[in-house]
Amino acid sequence: MMTSVKAVVFDLDGTLINSAIPFKEMKRKIISYLQSKGVTFELLNEEMLTVEILKLAVEDLKRKGFSEKQIAGALAQASKIMNEVELQSINNATLVDGVPETLKALKNRGLKLGLLTRSCHEYVKVMLTRFNLAKYFDAVAARDDVDQPKPSPEHAFYLLKLLGVDARETLFVGDHWSDAECARQAGLKFVFVGSWQGNRKVCELCYKSVNKVSDIVKIVDGI
Questions:
Q1: Do 216 and 96 meet the contact criterion of CB atoms below 8 Å apart?
Q2: Coil, helix or strand for 87?
Q3: Are residues 178 and 137 in the same domain?
Q4: How much is the average pLDDT of 81-94?
C-alpha cells in the first residue's frame, strides 16, 4: 500500500507532448560521430537506446586506452548533437489532449509536480513556455542537469531533492522503459501511459497503467 501521494513526476516526450524528435536521425549522427572518434564500427546501431549507445561507446574507448578527458570530450559533443536535433524539432511538436486540465487538477489537490526528461534543458524550457505549462511545475530535471540521466536513479533523486519529497510518496508517470526502470531503481511508483501492446517489459514494472494522461487524477484520488 502506498503512503499518501505528495508529488507526481511526469516524463515529457510521449507523455505530455507528442514529440517530433527524429530519434533515428539523432542516433545516426551520434553513431557517425563516435565512430569518427575511434569507436568500433560494428558495435553500435540505430535500434539501440541512446543511453545504450553512449554506454557501449565509453566502454569501447576505455578498452582502447582513450583518456578520461578524451572520452568526456566525445560525450560532450554527442550531447551537443542531441541538443541540436531536439531543438530543430520544436515547431512540429503538439500537446497531448487533456494535459493542462490534468496538471491543473493535480495542483488544485495540493500536489507538487515535477518534470523528469532525457531532453535538454533548453528544449524543455521552450516546450513548457510554448504550451503554457511552466506554471504547473515546481521543479524540472532535464538530461543536462545531471551526470547520469534516466534510467539512472540519480536523475530521479536529483528531482526529488528539488521537490522536497520522498520517493515513497511520489508517482512517476511515463511512456517508456527508461521511465519505468528509473522509477524502479529510485523506489517510485510508476504509472505507464499508453498501449500495453509491445510494452510488456515496461508494464511488468508498473504500479498502475492508464490509456490517457487525464486518468492520473483518478489514480491519485483512489490512493
A1: no
A2: helix
A3: yes
A4: 97
